[in-house]
Write a structure and sequence with these properties.
alpha/beta, 2 domains, six-stranded mixed β-sheet, 10 helices, 12 strands, elongated, metal-binding, Metallophosphoesterase, transmembrane, Metallo-depent_PP-like
Length: 383
């Protein structure tokens, strides 16, 4: 009981802090302060109930509704908290500098600014997260890429997160969008699900319809290891995708070859030691004179290559930060947040994620389907 009370102490205090700033300090006329506190309290109770019902193996219509409400408020709460903290800083500066002397008017203006900004921002973030993924087209020069593979189209999905609020209907739309790009290779770089195979087998079934001329390849992310990685590896293979567990394949077209390698999640070894990420094993025996594409869920896997040749690493995991301002904190763990960058001498493309984790909100980084075109890099000229 004590541990539960301690766990609730911080979120309770932060909710009270938001309520004091938005509803008590401004001194709104009756009944608006009471209405505000009532709505805030209801959201807090829904959040607590959402954590409780999420443990049920077989959700009901009511439990799904509670989960939706809890996830939406979890994201909205983070945005509200950020905005209220920022407003406190601005108000403090205005008050200290003497620019504003009417503290009551300042409190009302601050609260109105927060409510007037955050409410539409949350609505926008919801529509963005649930909307059609943006196709990001990027051309990547690759050394030693043969003429037969020049212009190769690689379409990447990452962080799909099929689960409580993303279902098979949504995934079907994503699959159709990917197939319409007529890819040569499809790469699915982890965090496919948030649930067990038993819970989500029917929801991930549309993956079987992914079509690419040279194969559809998949590597695990950290979330698969939270929900039974070995079971998911078997299920994804059953759906017809090529699972790369620290291994590679060599694809060929018109006499030109490309190594497509994949590693398990960067932290997999902490949960399932035999499935620890091994780039050296993934590339063992790969022809040295052939360009190499590596699928690795986390961008920081590039820091573990130890001099191995990798011409392009495809990663995800970061969601691009998903909800402002969390992208600034992602940089504390990962070397890159989104897009094409060079990490420890290796080109890494970091995908913003096709789905989302937790809150069905995206404020800033939109959902993505990456369409990368590999082209032959010009050979360096001598002096």
């Amino acid at each position: 009981m004590l541990s539960l009370l301690l766990a609730l102490a911080l979120p309770t205090a932060l909710h009270v802090y938001i309520g004091l700033r938005l509803f008590t300090s401004p001194g709104w006329p009756a009944p608006w302060a009471a209405v505000g506190w009532g709505l805030l309290g209801l959201c807090y109770l829904v959040l607590l109930a959402g954590f409780r019902v999420s443990r049920r193996e077989q959700p009901t219509g009511l439990s799904r509704a509670i989960q939706w409400g809890a996830y939406v408020w979890l994201g909205a709460f983070g945005i509200f908290l950020t905005a209220v903290l920022a407003s406190d800083v601005v108000a403090g500066v205005l008050s200290f500098s003497g620019a504003v002397t009417d503290l009551h008017a300042l409190a009302q203006g601050r609260a109105a600014a927060v409510l007037g900004t955050v409410v539409p921002a949350v609505a926008f973030a919801f529509v963005t997260a649930r909307g059609r993924a943006k196709v990001e087209r990027t051309t990547v020069p690759v050394q030693d890429l043969g003429p037969g593979l020049d212009g190769l189209r690689v379409v990447q999905l990452s962080d799909v997160h099929v689960g409580p609020t993303l279902d098979g209907v949504w995934l079907r739309r994503v699959v159709e969008q990917v197939n319409a790009l007529e890819p040569d290779i499809i790469a699915v770089t982890g965090d496919l699900v948030d649930g067990t195979v038993e819970q989500l087998r029917d929801q991930v079934a549309p993956l079987a319809d992914l079509k690419a001329k040279l194969g559809v390849y998949y590597v695990t992310g950290n979330h698969e290891f939270y929900h039974g990685a070995r079971a998911w590896i078997s299920e994804v293979a059953r759906l017809g995708l090529t699972v790369l567990n620290n291994e590679h394949r060599v694809v060929e077209r018109d006499g030109a070859r490309l190594v497509v390698a994949g590693v398990t999640d960067h932290d997999a070894g902490h949960i399932d030691a035999p499935l620890a990420s091994r780039p050296d094993l993934a590339l063992a025996g790969a022809p040295p004179d052939v360009p190499r594409l590596l699928l690795a869920h986390q961008p920081r896997s590039a820091l573990s290559l130890g001099g191995l040749r990798v011409d392009l690493q495809l990663s995800g995991h970061t969601h691009g930060g998903q909800i402002f301002p969390f992208m600034f904190f992602v940089k504390l763990q990962q070397p890159v947040v989104q897009g094409l960058a060079t990490v420890a001498g290796t080109r890494v493309y970091t995908h913003r994620g096709t789905g989302y984790w937790g809150p069905p909100l995206r404020l800033g980084p939109a959902p993505e389907i990456a369409a990368l075109t590999l082209v032959a890099a010009p050979r360096p000229t001598g002096d």
